[in-house]
Amino acid sequence: MESSAQIISESNQLSVELKNIAQKVFSGQRISFDEGVYLFEHADLSYLGTLANYVREKKNKNYVFFNRNFHVEPTNICVYTCAFCAYSRLIKQREEGWELSIEQMMDIIKKYDDQEVTEVHMTGGVIPKQDLAFYTELFKTIKKHRPELHIKALTPVELHYIFKKAKVTYEEGMQLMREAGLDSMPGGGAEIFDKDTRDKIAGGKCSAEEWLSIHEIWHNMGMHSNATMLYGHIETFAHRVDHLERLRQLQDKTKGFNAFIPLKFRNGNNAMSDVPEVSVIEDLRNYAISRIYLDNFDHIKAYWAMIGRSTAQLSLNFGVDDIDGTIDDTTKIYSMAGAEEQTPKLTTQELVNLITQVKRTPVERDTLYNIVKDYSVN
Question: What is this structure's pTM?
């Protein structure tokens, strides 16, 4: 690591600004908003990879984390019409989608009874019938059936709608969800925080301030969540850094975020098909800058199912230390959204192989990053 720092500091190819940023990173100092934008505008991939990998290995050594999880999507019917979304269907198009009952979801969950899964991930569309009473009953039913199964469910987009319909405050609603068995929140629905851009691609959904508020309330209850950013569409580099800055500020206050997950915009089968997708190089640059900027986040995650196995492997040299889990996408919401993997499911051994192929150390974790098995230890 020291040799990498020395190479950068002695390079005649780098601007004074890039050398100063590198010095900050190697000395553990926080970079500024303007420096974050400068990295997007001027830093090349090898430079970013060196800095991001330094931060990544300082925080997490050579480890790459994954877990045994599966996904259940309650519905792809939605009251919202986000321009970037490829899998949702309007209520008037419900014959093209699905709306699972509690019994149907429990049937899916029971299929994993003989497997060593630790997490069920649940998120999807927003519809009136899947309300506060529906989800509290669902979570209680899951916990009664399998108490140790970690429920990671519902984004602020879903929660905001549910609480507004139920006429309860965020605080009251989150307490009811926690009492029913909700263990943590996924990071979805963040999209991009800039208001004008957000209104264009996801108008009508909860605002950036509301998204952050729900996470802050959850964190203040001693609970944890993830965060995401949808990138590579009509946003600017400054919008990306603004998004990272707001997350960094909230993490300073609460320390409640487990991981940050950049989500690549895919242009298939949606209202933004005219917007070209960014390259894999830009994906890696975005992972790296996220790792450098979010100095108070312990983990940067890449969803192997969304970006493909090869890009996920590459990302492990650009700040990423987590590639999610076994997934088993029961309702194909990933493939409908344009994911590289059309049948996103990997065994634990396949994940281990994916990681060891690039000379990283696989570590199975639970949702809160407690180590279940370190594969470097026999």
Answer: 0.92
